[in-house]
Write a sequence for this structure.
């Protein structure tokens, strides 16, 4: 049992309840037993209170800190941690064609190292749940999904890996070289295997699988349609890249005679079980379709800026009722990769488009928490600090030099520099403490990633 007290709290519940000074009590079941103003009262030792029976209480003094829900990362490519800094001035298509031949050397060791490194780094910026979109499966690479699952267990974040895929190589009119794409039936079979082997639908699940063909320019329509049917047969979610760049819009017009969102609709890829990465280039009709179908969006403002892809219409999406979460995207197109920093980037991007009232700090925090939970279908158990929800919590230190004198804690967190985590818990388990990762050794993660980087470059030569 943990009692976090004397801290400001932004619960991000439906009413936006906040406490200037409050407490959260976490039960031994890894769920929030109570949240409220002032100090919490502990049930008597050994007695079954709301939190159930408990053995001992750890008290955390949150003086000078803000407690928020843990952040939820809705789009990533963790393997890219080993290939950062390439094509720094390229468009998406130039950047991809530079990197595909290097990614052709991926194997389980590289994927294990980069998954652990990427998730460890995410934890250090306030993330408690992350998805991953892995879509490069070289024939001789080994069991990449098993490597990911094992690495995520090591770091201790809630993990929603997707089984991605590409089956439209260059010789068939796609963008990726033929050696990094799979046969359609092989990709579908491997996707089904990942679901049956790993997907855990339990409310407190640490591991859920989603189905994620990569993008319109690297995947056939048949794979998109059959992947959607497969996901719906198994009751898992669907994810893909859509409407990221103007080049993609041109590709869809030339190949399919319609916009990316119309293409997705035609293939059965709009719905409450779908979340789309980027969705930058949307006209009003496309936003209307996402809203009407309950399709969610993973907004990745830093990656979109890095690739010069454009600025998503987040204000319009929110006003239309589209669920929007935040994503860091792969580390090769967003080298900083801090989810906490995306709160500010989302705010700045919205305001660059729409002026100073286009997004508030509290709306940015909601995108990074409840918005993300909605993208991943976890809003009943994650995304806000409420009694009965899972204790995925971020306690941010805001009385340091970087934040001193900003009285409103949410303003300090979102507008200020990245804050240090006093504590980060997943289901009540400590992942980060006093700014340091507790579940893995960051020097070891650095060494393994450096080795993975060198191995990939050696293979590419
Ligand atoms: Zn991506």
């Amino acid at each position: 049992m943990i009692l976090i007290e004397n801290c400001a709290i932004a619960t991000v519940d439906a009413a936006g309840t906040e406490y200037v000074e409050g407490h959260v009590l976490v039960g031994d079941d890894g769920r929030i037993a109570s949240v409220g103003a002032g100090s919490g009262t502990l049930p008597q030792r050994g007695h079954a209170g709301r939190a159930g029976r408990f053995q001992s209480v750890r008290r955390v003094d949150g003086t000078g800190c803000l407690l928020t829900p843990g952040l939820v990362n809705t789009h990533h490519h963790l393997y890219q941690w080993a290939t950062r800094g390439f094509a720094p001035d390229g468009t998406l298509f130039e950047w991809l064609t530079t990197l595909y031949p290097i990614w052709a050397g991926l194997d389980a060791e590289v994927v294990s190292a980069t998954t652990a490194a990427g998730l460890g780094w995410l934890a250090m910026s306030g993330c408690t749940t992350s998805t991953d979109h892995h879509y490069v499966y070289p024939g001789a690479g080994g069991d990449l999904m098993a490597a990911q699952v094992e690495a995520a267990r090591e770091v201790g974040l809630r993990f929603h890996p997707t089984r991605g895929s590409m089956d439209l190589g260059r010789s068939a009119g796609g963008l990726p070289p033929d050696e990094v794409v799979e046969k359609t039936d092989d990709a579908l079979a491997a996707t089904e295997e990942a679901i049956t082997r790993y997907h855990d639908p339990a409310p407190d699940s640490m591991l859920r699988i989603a189905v994620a063909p990569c993008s319109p320019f690297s995947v056939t329509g048949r794979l998109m349609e059959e992947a959607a049917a497969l996901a719906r047969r198994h009751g898992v979610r669907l994810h893909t890249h859509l409407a990221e760049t103007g080049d993609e819009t041109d590709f869809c017009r030339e190949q399919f005679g319609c916009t990316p969102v119309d293409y997705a609709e035609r293939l059965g890829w709009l719905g409450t079980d779908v979340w789309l990465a980027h969705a930058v280039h949307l006209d009003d009709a496309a936003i209307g379709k996402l809203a009407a179908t309950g399709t969610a969006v993973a907004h990745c403002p830093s990656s979109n800026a890095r690739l010069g892809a454009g600025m998503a219409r987040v204000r319009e999406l929110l006003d239309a009722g589209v669920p929007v979460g935040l994503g860091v995207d792969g580390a090769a197109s967003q080298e900083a990769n801090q989810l906490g920093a995306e709160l500010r980037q989302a705010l700045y991007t919205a305001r660059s488009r729409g002026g100073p009232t286009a997004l508030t700090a509290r709306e940015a925090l909601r995108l990074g928490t409840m918005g993300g939970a909605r993208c991943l279908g976890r809003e009943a158990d994650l995304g806000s600090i409420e009694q009965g929800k899972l204790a995925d919590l971020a306690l941010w230190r805001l009385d340091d030099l970087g934040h001193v004198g900003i009285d409103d804690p949410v303003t300090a967190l979102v507008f200020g520099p990245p804050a240090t985590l006093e504590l980060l818990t997943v289901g009540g388990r400590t992942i980060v403490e006093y700014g340091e990762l507790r579940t893995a050794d960051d020097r070891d993660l650095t060494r393994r990633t450096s080795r993975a980087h060198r191995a990939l470059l050696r293979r590419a030569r």
